[in-house]
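Hey all, sorry for the wall of text incoming. These are the three entities for the joint prediction.
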Amino acid sequence: MIYENVEIGKNSSIGEHVVIEKGVIIGENVTIGHHVVIKAETVIGDNVTIGNLTSLGKTPSTNKKMARKPVSTLEPLKIGHNVTIGDNVVLYRGVVVADDAFIGDLASIREKTSVGSTSIIGRSATIENNTVIGKRVTIQTGSYVTADMTIEDDVFIGPCVSSSNDKYMGEGNYCHQGPFIKKGAKIGNNVTLLPGIIIGEKAVVGAGAVVTKDVPPYTTSVGNPANTLKR
Amino acid sequence: MIYENVEIGKNSSIGEHVVIEKGVIIGENVTIGHHVVIKAETVIGDNVTIGNLTSLGKTPSTNKKMARKPVSTLEPLKIGHNVTIGDNVVLYRGVVVADDAFIGDLASIREKTSVGSTSIIGRSATIENNTVIGKRVTIQTGSYVTADMTIEDDVFIGPCVSSSNDKYMGEGNYCHQGPFIKKGAKIGNNVTLLPGIIIGEKAVVGAGAVVTKDVPPYTTSVGNPANTLKR
Amino acid sequence: MIYENVEIGKNSSIGEHVVIEKGVIIGENVTIGHHVVIKAETVIGDNVTIGNLTSLGKTPSTNKKMARKPVSTLEPLKIGHNVTIGDNVVLYRGVVVADDAFIGDLASIREKTSVGSTSIIGRSATIENNTVIGKRVTIQTGSYVTADMTIEDDVFIGPCVSSSNDKYMGEGNYCHQGPFIKKGAKIGNNVTLLPGIIIGEKAVVGAGAVVTKDVPPYTTSVGNPANTLKR
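and here's what came out:
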């Protein structure tokens, strides 16, 4: 079912049972799988591949307990050129995915978040709203990137890393602030990052560490709580 | 495709390629996305929003290695009023979701589990069977709630928390028992909870802690294994 | 929509809006849910149950930052007899699932991986490529099995376990090697496994442990970093 005012570039192919809502713009040489839902006004560049059973351009919702209400006006979802998106993915309205990025199966990304060019979002990774992900970043399978977080260029985040942005855990009396991960830092698998900490440039955090305070640049930290190894 | 004996209340809208099996009852002002599957006899209240590609009312299945066989008779899935359900969600038959609850994208909830009113189940959170979740509970993104667990009212569970209910890990010689989390407790991100432990009322467990024994009420615990901080 | 050259055995039922691509072979007494996608040449045995919104036989893709390029020729996905597959699952081409296995909702398995007979892959578990999973293995909900990993028969992996195979985290100068878990070992929930470690036969790793070196057979290890308990 293709709604009115949809533009589809040449050599693009659309799978079975796809729903493309009004005002969607799709570039050239795009491949769209089966059972994909593309919500109104989404913009998709050239040479993009979209897997099956994926939902693009979802509008955020809320309930009465949630601290943060969805923004009433969000730009449409924008997907650059040469992007690959997996199966069963959910991308919100207000997300920008730059050229050459890769988003794995079962991943989801909330509104007001940008993914830089050539970056990789692993399968089943979950990215919150209001977050900036730089260029050539790898976020591996199953990792959780909280809201209000910054990940600079060339950062490597291993599988199953967890972050948080709410020091008082739901009390609502605190300005939420996610971690800030500086250029080229590497975070091992299943690391725990506390709210507001800064991981310095090219720092390494070992697998399973619980990072409770800032990590200086060019150092290695391990343990629970994480300590910086002597050099 | 809408099967026989389906009731749909006024002002409700159904997306494209939706499958609603026989005997389903849908209230008023309900919005159902595209490619949704609603299995037989599911009951949905008024003012409910259901995302795309979501499966409601699934019957449990098993294989011959599984310790626990599915219950042969389960009540239909019941969703209260004003509930919001995301995209690519899986809810089983035998689940009860109370009014005003919120269930994020890619979450799943097994049979014989109840979610209290106004509670939030985060994206990609996985909830097992035979579990009680109270009112105004927050279970954040990617957390895992094991079977036979009790979560009282006003509990806050951060992202990526893990729980277990099987002390002997598959030996099958043990009565499975998940953790019991008392009223108002707060659990930080990526915390590990062992089988059968009790987290006391308004206790706080710091991010990344591994909780191997009961946590007294009104205390704070951190570390691996978790220790209670002096006050 | 069923393409050309598809074989469907007797007493098999196909849900609504299912897409079965060319050359697929489906056995007898198979039940396929709604909105399922079965890619070309997939082979499904007898008495198999497949949930809703599931994608079978996906071809791997990549982007220019990824270290490993997909194999150009992969065998079709092969699913044995009596297998149960959940809703919103993604299985790649080049996967072999043996008889009596169980794959939970929202799980995904990459190419060149085999799942032994009667093994269980939990809900939302993510399994990478080039991995061998033995017989009667349990991998519980939300666990992450990295690439190039071996899991022998009768292993138990609790929920939310994380593994990795890349010692230098994306530097690309290292032969990737996942953990090797020997026969009958048990891994507790939220354990972190580092690249290349060996977990000995019937060893037990306690919940929340961070395993940084080999674990001897018939021992128990706990902590961060994990230490072997005295016997």
